[in-house]
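Reminder to self: tokens first, then the designed residues, so the page reads top to bottom the way the pipeline ran.
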């Protein structure tokens, strides 16, 4: 159980980090200096945008384009325009989307493997009135 939890933590560290940053930012927003909130959210948003930005850079260099450029552009522009809560929200939603896509991919693979495992192994072919079994 602990090994599986560790695997999820390593795989989805950005989602956990984004949630922790949101909680820290909320704490500073409510009980501390607002300037600290802006710095924490702005820097964390940009740092959490670096890994997808690097992945996107390699995709663009290899000739593959996708819509993943939009959340990164939205995050950077939100920080430039001093909308720090928007930036961390976009990063959180982008990370949650990746987690959901990964879950759907694994679940679909498992379901299709189970379906193929139950596929018939023998076919009955009728030639006239005679049935022939083929493998």
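Designed residues (135 positions):
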């Amino acid at each position: 159980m602990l090994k599986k939890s560790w695997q999820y933590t390593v795989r989805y560290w950005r989602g956990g980090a984004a949630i922790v940053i949101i909680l820290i930012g909320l704490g500073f927003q409510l009980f501390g200096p607002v300037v600290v909130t802006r710095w924490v959210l702005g820097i964390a948003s940009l740092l959490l945008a670096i890994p997808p930005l690097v992945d996107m850079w390699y995709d663009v260099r290899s000739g593959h384009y996708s819509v993943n450029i939009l959340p990164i552009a939205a995050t950077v522009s939100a920080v430039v325009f001093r909308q720090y809560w928007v930036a961390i929200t976009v990063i959180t939603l982008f990370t949650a989307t990746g987690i959901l896509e990964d879950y759907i991919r694994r679940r679909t693979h498992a379901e299709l493997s189970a379906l193929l495992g139950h596929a018939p192994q023998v076919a009955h072919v009728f030639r006239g009135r005679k049935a022939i079994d083929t493998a």
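The longest strand covers residues 123-127.
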